[in-house]
Amino acid sequence: MVDKKAFRSLSYGLYIVGAAADRKRAGCVVNTFAQVTSAPAQVSVAINKENYTTGIIREAGCFTAVALDESVPMEMIGTFGFHSSADTDKFAQWACAEDEAGMPYPTEHTAARFSARVVSELDLGTHVLFVGEVTEAEPTGTVPPMTYAYYHQVKGGKTPPKASSYEGPAETAAEPQPSAEEAAAAPKRVGWRCMLCGYIEWTDELPDDFVCPICGAGKDMFERIEE
């Protein structure tokens, strides 16, 4: 038996990985970036094979990674985590810079940045594990780095379906259900669920200019729900 709730005890950070090749920039949010050796300094990152960023890293042969800090707005996570670099230049929407190899990275709401040259690649089925030798690294801020737990518990964030730690539609433990009599007597609560990231806004109606605070989707990407 594999109880996926066990994986919630593992500690992660939240990072944006970026790369550029053939005048195309790509980046995505990951929670799998980690140091694997110290001499030489090497890091690894697992990215879904279907992510556009995966192909750009392969083509570039190097990548950047920034550790997001606790001040990062959910709009920034939405830009990099719930959209595709195939049709969106995510770096154009936020302050960014390039390392010595010309790889892009965000410069705001970060605690540290890293650059790495790919030295090996491992096929993990749904994901690819890139191992890179660190070529640049520096702290970039004083705000504490954001943990994955902080992202979920304080920011109210969701896990994208392509993420390594995605558990399926129900990411949280099941809550006790009311009896049939209680359910019939209780007034219905109306909400609107984002079909892109799963965020729910509890209100009778959404204004026409409503934008999802998680992924930036517009009103037309929300479905009406009741409970």
From TrEMBL:
UniProt xrefs under InterPro entries: Flavin_Rdtase-like_dom, NADH-dep_flavin_reductase, Rubredoxin-like_dom, RUBY_RBDX, Split_barrel_FMN-bd
Region Disordered, residue ranges: 160-184
Gene Ontology MF terms: FMN binding; iron ion binding; riboflavin reductase (NADPH) activity
Cofactor(s) it depends on: Fe(3+)
Keywords noted in UniProt: Oxidoreductase
Residue stretches of biased makeup (Low complexity): 169-184
Domain of life assignment: Bacteria
Regions that span the bilayer: none
Residues covered by the Rubredoxin-like domain: 189-225
PROSITE patterns: RUBREDOXIN_LIKE (PS50903)
Name of the protein this chain belongs to: Flavin reductase
Protein source organism: Candidatus Aveggerthella stercoripullorum
Highest classification ranks of the organism: Bacteria, Bacillati, Actinomycetota, Coriobacteriia, Eggerthellales
